[in-house]
Specification:
This protein is an alpha+beta fold. It has a domain of about 110 residues. About 20% of the residues lie in helices and about 50% in strands. α2 runs antiparallel to α3. It is elongated, with a radius of gyration of 28 Å.
């Protein structure tokens, strides 16, 4: 006679009870750790912003709150204020919201509400508004490795109070990307449908894009922003600066450059342009006081292109002065 055995009901019940107790203990521990980490983060940010650091940077996060339980952790501020007394700069903005996944804390997503203001001594002031501004960043123990931001319907008003100069830049869509590339820093930015207004005269474009590499500047994305010492000049490469004004007016600039201790630019560049006459009219209208300079530059480029409306020429910058062959065209102010 064969015997068959069945699991006893009490044994199954005990296993289920142990499993349930284990789950409850895990949830309790996880919850406690999450709220402890949130309190520590809130306390750290408050202390960090309240007292100026050795670099003179301080700030305020009004209505600071840390939330996102159970699977996220995020920092929320009703408004943001930053001050850097070392360079005489200040920044204010609307609400800030950030979040990162518990399982991937090095990747954060940030949203910033309009409006914002930036001021820098002695006389630079900027005010910006936008519909949406989002950023994404990847961070490690030493700093950021990547940063990206996108904005929609951006408007920036700039003013130099001492000389009474004002300008306005608007764009339907804008992007900014930066990443560490060894010891170098790669930076790319683009604007869709930008309009630059100077002195009440607008200059509209279909698109503008900048792609550059800055040598030995990867440290700008580190938390301590530590850079190699001993260098008297900064160096980089304009991989491509492009602008499309529509109506066949395009321009592309590329080449290596350096910036010396006095902020003067030197470099060797290739400039390609189409519809030179259109450029003459557009820049002449935007800069009426410099119309003669614009005419001279376009005339020189046209002559070197064989009187064609499409040109590719070499430009040389030496200590801030830009030359076309041996002809000085204009001066770049110190940066």
């Amino acid at each position: 006679m064969s015997l068959s055995t069945q699991p006893s009901s009490p044994s199954v019940s005990r296993k289920m009870a142990r499993l349930a107790i284990g789950i409850l203990i895990f949830i309790a521990l996880y919850t406690g750790l999450w709220f402890y980490a949130a309190r520590q983060a809130e306390s750290y940010v408050t202390r960090l912003l309240a007292v100026p650091g050795v670099d003179g940077l301080s700030g305020e996060c009004a209505g600071l709150d840390v939330s996102g339980y159970p699977f996220r952790i995020g920092l929320f501020c009703d408004s943001v204020k930053l001050d850097d007394v070392s360079i005489g700069a200040s920044f204010t903005s609307g609400a800030l919201r950030s979040a990162s996944q518990i399982y991937n804390p090095g990747h954060a997503v940030i949203e910033l509400d309009s409006p914002a203001e930036f001021r820098m001594t002695p006389d630079l002031a900027a005010a910006a508004t936008w519909d949406t501004l989002r950023a994404s960043l990847r961070a490690g123990l030493s700093g950021l490795s990547r940063f990206s931001s996108v904005s929609d319907n951006l408007a920036v008003n700039l003013s130099l109070l001492s000389i009474g100069e004002t300008g306005r830049l608007t764009a339907r869509h804008g992007e900014l990307h930066a990443r560490q590339n060894g010891t170098a820093l790669d930076v790319a930015a683009s604007l869709e449908n930008p309009v630059l207004t100077i002195g009440g005269q607008p200059l509209a474009a279909s698109a503008v894009a900048v792609d550059m590499t800055l040598a030995d500047k990867a440290g700008l994305m580190d938390y301590d922003m530590r850079l190699p010492g001993g260098a008297d000049t900064d160096a980089g490469t304009l991989n491509r600066v492009s602008i499309d004004l529509g109506n066949g007016m395009t321009g592309d600039l590329s080449g290596p450059f350096t910036i010396d201790a006095d902020g003067l630019v030197s470099g060797d560049f290739t400039l390609a342009m189409t519809n030179l006459e259109g450029w003459r009219q557009a820049l002449g209208a935007l800069l009426p006081e410099d119309r003669d300079t614009v005419d001279n530059i376009v005339n020189a480029i046209t002559a070197l292109s064989g009187q064609n409306d499409r040109a590719s020429v070499k430009l040389t910058a030496r200590k801030g002065t830009v030359f076309l062959t041996l002809i000085p065209l204009f001066v770049i102010p110190p940066l």
